[in-house]
């Protein structure tokens, strides 16, 4: 099916309202191949990214993040649905949209024998209005490494060079595709500081990452993609609030081990389970359930070993999504 564009002329492309979403995706579908071999990688996605926010796109392997982002970045057409970036169809109006966005890909693939500065200058030559090569290198903290061949940069320095090129054109919207993969914890935190600096300058950022901590640290809002659909979306707090907390322990005392007896505990999110000899409880109110467990243990003189009580987390939400099979 060809992509459809209900507003092919984009009547007010240069005068969007300040509160309009910078990225607006509605009912997006992307299908690979046709006929019996057809595979729909993106199955009706709605997303809206506001000006100046960092929106993190998470997902299981093969969830459709890359397939979705390629359409948003204007690199591929949608099979169906509507995408607007800065008010424009990014595929049909690529020449207008491209200078206003920056894309940091997973593997930029520079000629390894060029130096940092030569690489930045080469990229500068492809842009119109842009920061100088020197300034871009300084922005990402690579000053002093100008004359080092790209092949001799560390993995972290190479990712910073990727970022220098992505921000060189002073993009209004920046796409960061797994920007800190392979970086050590210190370099990752340095990259986060760079990203925060860009946000402070008003850049709108779409981040994909497999590091949930990174999304929790940086994102204003998050979407978790699964099997081509948005399975969860919202702020970190909103996503976490939709998941139960958990309590685990081991005991030999029946009052705390018998699952039927435990099912009467308050605020449980489901039936108690026993896994590998440990009791597992899910709770919609950790404090209420945990207090009841401890009171019962005291009354029964029970010893609880390996006691662990954890509030819901982004990781739990992610794992819950990964375990779901969507209709
Ligand atoms: N060119 C293609 N032709 C056919 N199928 C494809 C093509 N590209 C991707 N797919 C399939 O579409 C689905 C989504 O892939 P995609 O790369 O978008 O996922 P992803 O979320 O980016 O995954 P990852 O986190 O592993 O990079 C996968 O099942 C993949 O095999």
TrEMBL record:
It comes from the Bacteria. Residues 1-21 are annotated as: Disordered. It is found in: Cell membrane. Its main location: membrane. GO terms for biological process: response to antibiotic. One of its GO terms (molecular function) is ATP hydrolysis activity. Keywords: Antibiotic resistance, ATP-binding, Nucleotide-binding, Transport. GO terms for cellular component: plasma membrane. The keyword ATP-binding applies. It is a peripheral membrane protein. PANTHER family: ABC TRANSPORTER ATP-BINDING PROTEIN. This is ABC transporter ATP-binding protein. It comes from Cellulomonas fimi.
